[in-house]
Amino acid sequence: MESRRVPTVRAVDERPSRHRAGEPVRAGIPEHGRIPRYYAVKARLLDLVAELGEGAALPAERELAERFGVSRVTLRQAVGELVLEGRLRRRQGSGTFVAPPKLVQPLALVSYTEGMRRQGVAPGRTAITIERLAADDGLAEELRIERGDTVAHLERVLLADGARVGLESTYLPERRFPGLVEEFDPTTSLYAYLRERRGVVFAEAEERLETVLATPREALLIGTNPALPMLLLHRVSFDPHGVPIERVRSLYRGDRFSFVTRLRADS
């Protein structure tokens, strides 16, 4: 009689799970069950943050260290991670406070202005540079122009309800947009200007997102710590004929921004 192998059935682990719905799997706890002390403190701090609510001040460092039964060094490590993640915010001379929710910018063909207004946030910009430059090899290739051709360059600090949150550099072919440097008000929406004054239609874009650290100059302009992770977006936008309109490099504070997009299956 022919025999066959019966698959081994693994027993279900009926021990209480440490993974709560909606959290990262097992809430960051390694399989061996041992976690760094600072991480346990961080988890308890997150519960406290949820309890206190946006804008509330964190209790004094000494009080928290005593409450959690850890050293102040361990507590500082846990608090420092939550600051980097944008859950807490330090104010010089005032203390540490529960941060507001992150701003959500869509990965779509909408301007920064539109993205902020959808969230009830007042957008703004401070002009740093508006000039003409000669295109180098990389820029010429992306904009499909000749090396050395003139481009308009706009560098602006991005504001959200008056606070500095990012830095944006935009390059546009001068031949296609003559007089833009003199005519455009850099404190306003470039997309609105191009649509309404130049008749430009944005049809599609190629966009790349990565994490970087700001240069000392960028950190100074944005008003952030150079060690804070930043989100870098590199975009080339195209009109309905596939002709490049602009190249944009946008740098956003990682503690203030997240990005969202909707994915669809290819037809």
TrEMBL record:
Organism: Streptoalloteichus hindustanus
Domain named HTH gntR-type: residues: 35-101
Region (Disordered): 1-27
UniProt xrefs under Gene3D superfamilies: Chorismate lyase-like, Winged helix-like DNA-binding domain superfamily/Winged helix DNA-binding domain
Keyword GTP-binding found: no
InterPro entries recorded: Bact_HTH_transcr_reg, Chorismate_lyase_/UTRA_dom_sf, Tscrpt_reg_HTH_GntR, UTRA, WH-like_DNA-bd_sf, WH_DNA-bd_sf
A GO biological process held by the record: negative regulation of DNA-templated transcription
Pfam families, sorted: GntR, UTRA
GO molecular function, one term: DNA binding
Protein name per its UniProtKB record: Transcriptional regulator, GntR family
Keywords on record: DNA-binding, Transcription, Transcription regulation
